[in-house]
Amino acid sequence: MLPIVYSFRRCPYAMRARLALFYSGVAVELREVILSDKPAEMQQLADEVTVPLLVLPDETLIDESWDIMLWAIRQNDPDLWLGEGESSVFDAEIMVEMNDYSFKNDLDHYKYADRYPEHPMEYYRSLGEEFLQDLEDALSESSYLLGDKISIADIAVFPFIRQFAFVDKPWFDQSPYPRLQDWLQNFLESELFNSIMEKFPVWKQGDEAVIYPA
Fold this sequence. Notes:
This protein is α+β, with helices and mostly antiparallel strands and 214 residues long. It folds into two domains: 92 residues, Glutaredoxin (3-Layer(aba) Sandwich), CATH 3.40.30.10; 110 residues, Glutathione S-transferase Yfyf (Class Pi), Chain A, domain 2, CATH 1.20.1050.10. Helices cover 50% and strands 8% of the residues. It is built from nine helices and five strands. It has a five-stranded mixed β-sheet. α1 links the parallel β1 and β2. The longest helix is centred in the middle third of the chain and has 23 residues. The radius of gyration is 18 Å and the shape is globular.
């Protein structure tokens, strides 16, 4: 029996989990869902369910995307995304905490500025730029966020920077973050990213299992 992953392709949290699963090559059953119409089978698993959600064969639930990433990469880490002896994990966790809380809040306000009329879009963007500058500074010292090799930090942060950039791509392309622009474009053009963007039909009870990665 394979682990089951409930996912939504365009959600940045689900995207980073799928990136880690694809990289590790650990086979799971992928169930694509719509956030506004979650299947009953998923909702019965816990009082509050969101994506991504990993259900292990022993019925253990892992409902945080960061934890799903760690679970997958610990099964198989051919390029040492976790670092030697998991040496990259601590620094990555610090960066991910900044991304998932303060930056994600700024991103949501920027992307959905019409819901927050207290300030103009540019105000919310300027708040998010504080994190962009931190990443630009990191990339001024190395090719990737934690060194000259891809780490779990890059993969965990990338989907959120992608989302921020595409709120107003012309603005992002001329913004004063050239290293971050190159870093983002490198991932957008990567085989890894393009491999996880395949569309799957919305899952329904009784459907044939979708094994991921295929």
